Amino acid sequence: MRQLEDTRKPKVLPAETFWREMAFYESGPGLWKAIHVGLSAVFFFRMATLLGLREGALAEMLSIKLSMRRRWSKSGQMSRTESDLLYRIAEVFRDSLSLFEGDVSSAIMWLRTPATALNQIQPAALLTTHVGINLVKAHIGRIEHGVVG
């Protein structure tokens, strides 16, 4: 079995500090502009580090191809579409951390566990499209409000 976690993994990452830990401070029109021009590739690599995952493991979890990561490393920047998707995925990670009071291991385990309410699909598997991300965010919202299925 492939090792997914490394020793840099923080024990607790409160959802309230997620964006600060990501060193990402944009909001409103500034956020739109940052995504429009393309986020720095550092965004993905920092997310992997914060979640205590090897870059390859995070990429595998999100169905990101090696060629794409190589392009990011070379150019230093993601496309607009990639930036938008990665930002929305980061929001889901933040929301899942909120569910588990910042417990990174529990949040990642939850993302990798098939959910009855999602037709036995792993939430992480749905993070490859906007529709899937919306399904996972709605599922998180239902759990937060005590409605599980």
Number of domains: 1
Oligomer: single chain
Order of helices and strands: HHHHHHHH
Let me know the largest β-sheet.
none
* Unreliably modeled segments: 1-7
Give an overview in words.
This protein has 149 residues and is an all-alpha fold. It has one domain (15-144). The protein has eight helices and no strands. The protein has helices at 18-21, 28-37, 42-50, 55-61, 66-75, 80-99, 104-111, 130-144. Helix 6 packs across helix 7 and helix 6 (80-99) runs parallel beside helix 8.
What keywords describe this structure?
about 55% helix; globular; single chain; about 150 residues; disordered N terminus; 8 helices; mainly alpha
Topology at a glance:
Layout (H helix, E strand, L loop, with lengths): L17 H4 L6 H10 L4 H9 L4 H7 L4 H10 L4 H20 L4 H8 L18 H15 L5
Helix pairs in contact: 6-7, 6-8
TL;DR of this structure?
With 149 residues, the protein is mainly α. It has helices at 18-21, 28-37, 42-50, 55-61, 66-75, 80-99, 104-111, 130-144.
